[in-house]
């Protein structure tokens, strides 16, 4: 199937009516999310389904130092809403490190929130991502945070730090099938913590 056809299908999927009330949460990117009538007006966060394209739109608008994933790629994404407004998203995909591509491991590629996101929204996303991956038979999930970030949301969801990355020197560039030419960005100069959560068996 051509990529154009896939994009058309995703757009149609994003606009489908699944029998629940939908509200446009952010006029700047026209993100449609299901409105949870039971929690409407309470301010309590709830999980919502989210296409990869819509999640990447949110990341492009609100993430502090990361942009979209390559070709809007990933395995799946989900969001958190409060009062009918999208306030956070997570994107899950294959590990970026080839050494971790063992078939049992997935990586949370992006987590992004806005100021209105209720406390615990990030932990909710990390927890949901891990539950979904385990349900598919996954054994391990990883993600990275800047060393300057506390990681409280990950700890709250049961993740632990298992390593650190080295800074990438200025001038780095790579040409590959993902994005013609990938160039250096300032965030690559920072040390990152690698977090993981596992099922605790021998596959992890």
SSE layout:
Blueprint: H1 3-14, E1 22-26, E2 31-34, E3 46-50, H2 52-62, E4 76-82, E5 85-93, E6 105-113, H3 121-135, E7 140-146, H4 152-156, E8 160-164, E9 173-175, E10 181-183, E11 192-198
Parallel strand pairs: 6-7
Antiparallel strand pairs: 1-2, 3-4, 4-5, 5-6, 7-11, 8-11, 9-10
Quick rundown:
By secondary structure, the chain is α+β, with helices and mostly antiparallel strands. The protein contains four helices and eleven strands; from the N terminus they run αβββαβββαβαββββ. The strands form three sheets. Strands 3-4-5-6-7-11-8 form a seven-stranded mixed beta sheet, sandwiched between helices. It has a two-stranded antiparallel ribbon with strand order 1-2. A two-stranded antiparallel sheet has the order 9-10.
Looking at this protein, list some descriptive labels.
globular, 7-stranded mixed β-sheet, disordered N terminus, 204 residues, 4 helices
């Amino acid at each position: 199937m051509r990529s154009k056809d896939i994009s058309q299908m995703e757009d149609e999927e994003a606009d489908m009516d699944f029998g629940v009330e939908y509200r446009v949460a952010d006029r700047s990117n026209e993100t449609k999310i299901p409105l949870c009538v039971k929690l409407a007006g309470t301010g309590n966060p709830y999980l919502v389904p989210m296409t990869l394209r819509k999640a990447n739109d949110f990341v492009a608008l609100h993430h502090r130092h990361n942009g979209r994933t390559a070709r809007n790629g990933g395995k799946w994404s989900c969001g958190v809403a409060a009062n009918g407004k999208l306030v956070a998203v997570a994107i899950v995909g294959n590990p970026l490190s080839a050494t971790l591509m063992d078939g049992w491991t997935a990586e949370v590629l992006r987590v992004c929130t806005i100021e209105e996101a209720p406390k615990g929204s990030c932990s909710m996303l990390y927890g949901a991502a891990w539950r979904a991956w385990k349900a598919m038979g996954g054994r391990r999930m990883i993600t990275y945070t800047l060393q300057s970030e506390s990681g409280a949301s990950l700890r709250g969801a049961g993740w632990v730090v298992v390593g650190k990355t080295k800074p990438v020197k200025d001038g780095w560039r790579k040409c590959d099938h993902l994005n013609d030419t990938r160039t250096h960005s300032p965030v690559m100069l920072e040390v990152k913590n690698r977090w993981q959560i596992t099922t605790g068996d021998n596959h992890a």
